[in-house]
């Protein structure tokens, strides 16, 4: 295959992607365009611009985009309408960011007439799959370069040697092995590797990046109210906010109260098990609040159907199929169920737990007169339950009768 002429690189400004940038230049002799996404990772991104300039990238070829609002509005919120959890626990903070990054990689490639994109995901992880499935779904002709699957820089020592040979600055703490690898965005922080690789050893307290230890959380609970419109959070304590602002505020509440820490051994799409520590403070509160408002506004049939497809929906996101027709079909069903999921939830935040304590809505399906233990003024005739039970018991009685007959012949 001929060498690419222009490559758009997903660029963080860190050591690994800086090495990739230089490797692309030396290996292919191509023009490199960098894309750095502000996903709310909490880091200053302008140093990435300075690093790219130092490595010979033209100013017009450096893209640093603030995509926080797009991230929450178009990716995080649709996912939370489904109450998505991978393997029952993981809130998919890394997974949901990858299709957005890929979308902009492809758009920038089209803008510059680039013939390839590149990423820094390793050949052992899920991210390579997510980046590439997303990119190819958006542009089936795009070429994807994954240096970790191609180059011979197979150890930290060789990476550092390459960096030194090419005058790439090396942070002092990179000289030794990093205690763990961190990926962050507005939804979560994930930590993996080295000190976390043995699942039989408790993660050190210093792994936590944004959440206080439960023991250090306030000794007094805090109450907040989250308002929803058609399944999406729109206000906190009566104050309307943008999607990214809401998640930022919920992160502050969650981090303060030690909410949203998960130590998890998951099944990667590529076949191996992996242990990670995930911090999702705002997302954990948002999930509890969304389920709280659904409790009174969502019909049982629709709700149970949605719950039954949720594992499949979550798996599609985890495996990189955000832009697949099946995910979009499930999303249409999920969004249909959210038409009346509007109202307010009151939550109690205390010592690592977010708990719904009250909820109300103009679209509530809850009828106090039907469930009251007091006089219900004829709203519900309890005698009707007898026929309901008899009809539902019919098949069970027939099975029991058959089994008894077979046993007698025995």
Strand and helix map with partners:
Elements: E1 6-10, H1 15-28, E2 31-38, H2 46-54, E3 62-66, H3 68-81, H4 98-112, E4 116-118, H5 127-138, E5 143-145, H6 156-165, E6 181-184, E7 189-192, E8 222-229, E9 232-236, E10 239-240, H7 243-256, E11 261-267, E12 273-279, H8 281-297, H9 300-319, H10 325-337, E13 343-350, E14 353-360, H11 368-371, H12 384-409
Helix pairs in contact: 3-7, 4-5, 7-8, 9-10
Could you characterize the architecture of this molecule?
- The protein is α/β, with parallel strands linked by helices and 410 residues long.
- The chain has 3 domains: 6-68 and 93-176, 3-Layer(aba) Sandwich (Rossmann fold), CATH 3.40.50.620; 182-298 and 340-360, Argininosuccinate synthetase, chain A, domain 2, CATH 3.90.1260; 370-409, no CATH class.
- Helices cover 41% and strands 19% of the residues.
- It has a 5-stranded parallel sheet with strand order 3-2-1-4-5, sandwiched between helices. A 5-stranded antiparallel sheet has the order 10-9-8-13-14. Strands 6-7-12-11 form a 4-stranded antiparallel sheet, with no helix packed on it.
- The protein is elongated, with a radius of gyration of 26 Å.
- The chain starts with 5 loop residues before the first strand and ends with a helix.
- The model has no long low-confidence stretch (mean pLDDT 93).
Primary descriptors:
410 residues; alpha/beta; Rossmann fold; Argininosuccinate synthetase, chain A, domain 2; 3 domains; five-stranded parallel sheet; five-stranded antiparallel sheet; 14 strands; 19% strand
Quick summary of this structure?
This protein is α/β, with parallel strands linked by helices. Helices cover 41% and strands 19% of the residues.
């Amino acid at each position: 295959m001929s060498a690419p002429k222009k490559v758009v690189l997903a660029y963080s400004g860190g050591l690994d992607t800086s090495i990739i940038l230089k490797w692309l230049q030396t290996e292919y002799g191509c023009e490199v365009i960098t894309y750095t996404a502000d996903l709310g990772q909490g880091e200053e991104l302008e140093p990435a611009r300075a690093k790219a300039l130092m490595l010979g990238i033209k100013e017009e070829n450096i893209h640093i985009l603030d995509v926080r609002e797009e991230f929450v509005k178009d990716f995080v919120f649709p996912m939370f309408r489904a109450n998505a959890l991978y393997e029952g626990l993981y809130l998919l903070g890394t997974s949901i960011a990858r299709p957005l990054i890929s979308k902009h990689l492809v758009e920038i490639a089209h803008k510059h007439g680039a013939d390839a994109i590149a990423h820094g995901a390793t050949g052992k992880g899920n991210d390579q799959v997510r980046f590439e499935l997303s990119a190819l779904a958006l542009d089936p002709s795009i070429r994807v370069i994954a240096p970790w699957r191609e180059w011979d820089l197979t150890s930290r020592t060789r990476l550092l040697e390459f960096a030194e040979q090419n005058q790439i600055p090396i942070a002092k703490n990179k000289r030794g092995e990093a205690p763990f690898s961190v990926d962050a965005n507005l939804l979560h922080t994930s930590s993996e590797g080295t000190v976390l690789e043995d699942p039989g050893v408790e993660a050190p307290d210093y792994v936590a990046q944004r959440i206080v230890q439960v023991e250090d959380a306030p000794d007094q609970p805090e109450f907040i109210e989250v308002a929803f419109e058609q399944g999406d959070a729109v206000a906190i304590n009566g104050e309307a906010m943008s999607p990214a602002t809401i998640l930022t505020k919920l992160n502050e509440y969650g981090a303060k109260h030690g909410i949203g820490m998960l130590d998890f051994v998951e099944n990667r799409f590529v076949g191996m098990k992996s242990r990670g520590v995930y911090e999702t403070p705002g997302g954990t509160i948002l999930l509890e609040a969304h389920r709280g408002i659904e409790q009174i506004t969502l019909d049982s049939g629709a709700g149970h159907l949605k719950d039954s497809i949720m594992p499949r929906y979550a798996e599609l996101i985890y495996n990189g199929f955000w832009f697949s027709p099946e995910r979009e079909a499930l999303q249409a069903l999920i969004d249909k169920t959210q038409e009346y999921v509007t109202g307010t939830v009151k939550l109690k935040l205390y010592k690592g737990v977010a708990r719904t304590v009250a909820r109300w809505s103009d679209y509530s399906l809850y009828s106090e007169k039907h469930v009251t233990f007091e006089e219900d003024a004829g709203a519900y005739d309890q005698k009707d339950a007898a026929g309901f039970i008899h009809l539902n018991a019919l098949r069970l009685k027939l099975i029991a009768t058959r089994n008894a007959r077979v046993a007698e012949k025995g």
